Amino acid sequence: MRIDSIFESARETGKPPVSFEMFPPKGELTLDRAREAAGELCTLGPDFISVTCSAGGGGNFGQTAAIASMIQEDFEVSSVAHLTCMSLTQEQLSARIADYRAAGVENVLALRGDKPVPGSPAYGAPSDYAYAAEIIPLLREEGFCVGAAAYPEGHIECDDLALSVEHLKLKQDAGASFFVTQLFFDNEHFYRFADLADKAGITVPITCGIMPFMSRKQISRMVFMCGASLPSPVIKLLAKYESDPQSLRQAGIDYACRQLIDLANHGVDGCHVYTMNRVDVARAAMEALGR
């Protein structure tokens, strides 16, 4: 099913979608392992599952399309395939689109993607695209339902939140039918962002991306990569359970669940859980939301 139809149905029923993201470490996930992970996630009844491609310019598009197709065909759950445009030429993008269409992909999340790191295959490669907004019209013309990213605290490379909202509007004007936010640990950042987006004329759904922190190393990496700020309650939990990894992991899941409950109570358009392929994370989120 197209994701815009899912959000439309949600508006009519008053039951915002809950979705998951499969987040393969470094984009390396065999199809057998992907089938196992997807099957576990699908049993929980998400409204859709998004499938990433590798970070750092690797662009593991073939696996992304295959896994997204598998989720739809084998488990009858709607899927969204990520597509990054960084380091792609027009010819390469056309080939990716053809691959996605051949795999039966209906929904695409259009992303710029991370800048290639030195030593990666894509580092220094020519690119015809600088922003996700540039590929959204092409994807729409090919018949895809297209989503894009939103940044409640602003993009890490942009220190002006108002400018980030302007870029969001450009993506909507280009044809984006929904947005999925970058992770955040303080819901107040999202509520302020949502107010700015509303004033800027954003009318398509914005679903909130939440990722539980599982370890000090993980949260440090996420903060560095995404620019998400750490509120005082999270810092206190990190200090409290510094020498107790298992308790810290559970505290991170519990904190994320409280975020989800608060967001749902505020009537957000949807909740998107960065599961890291961990079914216990997804299950806890669904239980917290009463699903």
What's the layout of helices and strands?
Layout: H1 3-13, E1 18-22, H2 31-42, E2 48-51, H3 61-75, E3 78-84, H4 90-102, E4 107-111, H5 136-141, E5 145-150, H6 161-174, E6 178-181, H7 187-199, E7 206-210, H8 216-226, H9 232-240, H10 245-265, E8 271-274, H11 279-288
Parallel strand pairs: 1-2, 1-8, 2-3, 3-4, 4-5, 5-6, 6-7, 7-8
Helix pairs in contact: 2-3, 9-10, 10-11
Question: What does this protein look like?
Answer:
- By secondary structure, the chain is α/β, with parallel strands linked by helices.
- It has a single domain, classed as Alpha-Beta Barrel (TIM Barrel).
- Helices cover 46% and strands 14% of the residues.
- It is built from eleven helices and eight strands.
- It has an eight-stranded parallel β-barrel with strand order 1-2-3-4-5-6-7-8, surrounded by six helices.
- α2 crosses α3, α9 runs antiparallel to α10 and α10 (245-265) runs parallel beside α11.
- The longest helix has 21 residues, at 245-265.
The parts where pLDDT drops under 50 for at least 5 residues are: 55-59
Number of domains: 1
- Mean pLDDT score, rounded? 91
Number of strands: 8
Structural class: alpha/beta
Strand percent estimate:
5-15%
The quaternary structure here is single chain
Question: Helix count, per DSSP?
Answer: 11
Tell me, what is the CATH class?
A: Alpha Beta
Q: What is the N-to-C succession of helices and strands?
A: HEHEHEHEHEHEHEHHHEH
CATH architectural name: Alpha-Beta Barrel
Rough outline: globular
State the major sheet. 8 strands, parallel, barrel
User: Which fold name corresponds to the CATH topology?
Assistant: TIM Barrel
